[in-house]
């Protein structure tokens, strides 16, 4: 089905996507910059995956930590890594890219495509490529790591990924926006759930992780630190009171989107569109979502729900709000609380206007950059 597909990242989402694409006949080049994530997979180029009660073994065509080897001859490059690695990956691939390739961040979190493109250009990359992002990861999944797989009678330790749920719809934004349909043509034969967004503002501002990750983690931080029994992150951690603050943050996100002229789904609308769940309140909808049933809370506070989603999701949301003249007091409060508790300057570390390529721009200039990847004179 066309050119090989590179998947960069052998964590939760990367192994799930690599296994699925391979099962559909794609030639997959699985790459990770950290060889230890590939060790068990490269024994026999195999990923064990479990979905809807069925477990199977799937071979991938290539497993390598060599970026140039992984990208050679590919058309689509699926980057499936935490967003705080996006700049590092852009640096790694800058001199390995080929004209006509498409990079798709799964997901971009907030403004991932803009930062990735800005980083490539700062390194002198002049290849004719497009950089896109999804609004969310297609799967709710966890990589189990090394695990004996007795069902095949070998007892060998292999990498296994468990898929708990699949989104019904995932938005895709691309810079430049005129390449959106080209990118979709490469991915929708495998994932028909992927749909065109108006632009990367829509995908970036549709980042639900910005709502569901930092705030519930902060409001449950005492329990995470002291309760050895653990708890279910969504079902127990997002209580009626926690969900009310999440909804207030959602209102600010929606206001920023409106200022940039894009219509995005509210968090409740997103729950229905993504998982088909309904309910009178956000709390009810979370309780009704089977895909969230088995997701456990972190067992320590040094987790990506803060270390990734505050600097890479909430900080750029706040920065976009400033650019558009939209106040974001609840978002800013969560950022400030996280900075105090974690003793980090998340605004300095995170996706600032400069890293997104829109420093000093007006709202109109920023909107043009997200559409075209070019700066207005």
Description:
Strand 1 (5-8), helix 1 and strand 2 (28-31) form a beta-alpha-beta unit. This protein has helices at residues 12-23, 67-71, 86-93, 112-122, 180-187, 200-205, 209-212, 214-219, 221-226, 233-237, 240-259, 267-275, 282-287, 304-307, 309-324, 329-342, 346-349, 353-356, 363-372; strands at residues 5-8, 28-31, 46-51, 54-59, 62-64, 76-79, 102-105, 130-134, 139-148, 157-166, 170-175, 194-196. Helices cover 42% and strands 17% of the residues. The relative contact order is 0.11. With 377 residues, the protein is an alpha/beta fold. The radius of gyration is 20 Å and the shape is globular. The chain has two domains: 5-202, Rossmann fold; 208-371, Orthogonal Bundle (N-(1-d-carboxylethyl)-l-norvaline Dehydrogenase, domain 2). The chain has 19 helices and twelve strands. Helix 3 (86-93) runs parallel beside helix 4 (112-122), helix 11 (240-259) crosses helix 15 (309-324) and helix 15 (309-324) runs antiparallel to helix 16.
Layout of helices and strands, plus pairs?
Elements: E1 5-8, H1 12-23, E2 28-31, E3 46-51, E4 54-59, E5 62-64, H2 67-71, E6 76-79, H3 86-93, E7 102-105, H4 112-122, E8 130-134, E9 139-148, E10 157-166, E11 170-175, H5 180-187, E12 194-196, H6 200-205, H7 209-212, H8 214-219, H9 221-226, H10 233-237, H11 240-259, H12 267-275, H13 282-287, H14 304-307, H15 309-324, H16 329-342, H17 346-349, H18 353-356, H19 363-372
Helix pairs in contact: 3-4, 11-15, 15-16
Briefly say what this structure is.
The protein is α/β, with parallel strands linked by helices and 377 residues long. It folds into 2 domains: 5-202, NAD(P)-binding Rossmann-like Domain (Rossmann fold, 3-Layer(aba) Sandwich); 208-371, N-(1-d-carboxylethyl)-l-norvaline Dehydrogenase, domain 2, CATH 1.10.1040.
């Amino acid at each position: 089905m066309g050119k090989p597909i590179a998947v960069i990242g052998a964590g939760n989402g990367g192994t799930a996507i690599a296994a699925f694409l391979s099962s559909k006949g794609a030639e997959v080049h699985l790459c990770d910059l950290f060889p230890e994530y590939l060790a068990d997979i490269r024994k026999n180029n195999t990923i064990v995956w479990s979905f809807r009660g069925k477990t199977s073994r799937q071979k991938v065509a290539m497993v390598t930590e060599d970026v140039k080897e992984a990208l050679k001859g590919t058309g689509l490059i699926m980057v499936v890594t935490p967003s705080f690695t996006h700049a590092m990956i852009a640096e790694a691939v800058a001199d390995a890219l080929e004209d006509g390739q498409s990079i798709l961040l799964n997901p971009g979190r907030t403004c991932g495509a803009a930062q990735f493109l800005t980083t490539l250009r700062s390194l002198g990359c002049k290849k004719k490529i497009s950089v896109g992002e999804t609004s969310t990861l297609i799967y709710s999944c966890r990589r189990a790591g090394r695990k004996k797989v007795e069902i095949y009678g070998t007892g060998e330790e292999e990498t296994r990924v468990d898929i708990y749920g699949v989104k019904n719809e995932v938005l895709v934004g691309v810079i430049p926006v005129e390449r959106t349909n080209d990118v979709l043509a490469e991915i929708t034969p495998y994932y028909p759930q992927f749909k065109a967004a108006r632009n990367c503002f829509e995908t970036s501002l549709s980042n639900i992780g910005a709502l569901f990750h930092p705030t519930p983690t902060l409001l449950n931080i005492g329990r995470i630190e002291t309760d050895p029994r653990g708890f279910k992150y969504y079902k127990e951690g997002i209580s009626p009171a926690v969900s009310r603050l999440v909804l207030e943050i959602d209102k600010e996100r929606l206001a920023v989107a409106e200022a940039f002229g894009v219509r995005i789904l509210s968090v409740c609308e997103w729950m229905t569109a993504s998982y088909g769940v309904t309910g009178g309140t956000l709390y009810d909808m979370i309780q009704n979502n089977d895909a969230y049933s088995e997701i456990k809370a972190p067992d320590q506070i040094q987790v990506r729900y803060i270390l990734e989603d505050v600097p890479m999701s909430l900080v750029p949301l706040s920065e976009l709000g400033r650019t558009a003249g939209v106040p974001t007091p609840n978002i800013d409060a969560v950022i400030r609380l996280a900075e105090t508790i974690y003793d980090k300057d998340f605004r300095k570390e995170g996706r600032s206007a400069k890293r997104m390529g829109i420093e000093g721009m007006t709202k109109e200039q920023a909107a043009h950059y997200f559409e075209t990847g070019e700066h207005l004179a």
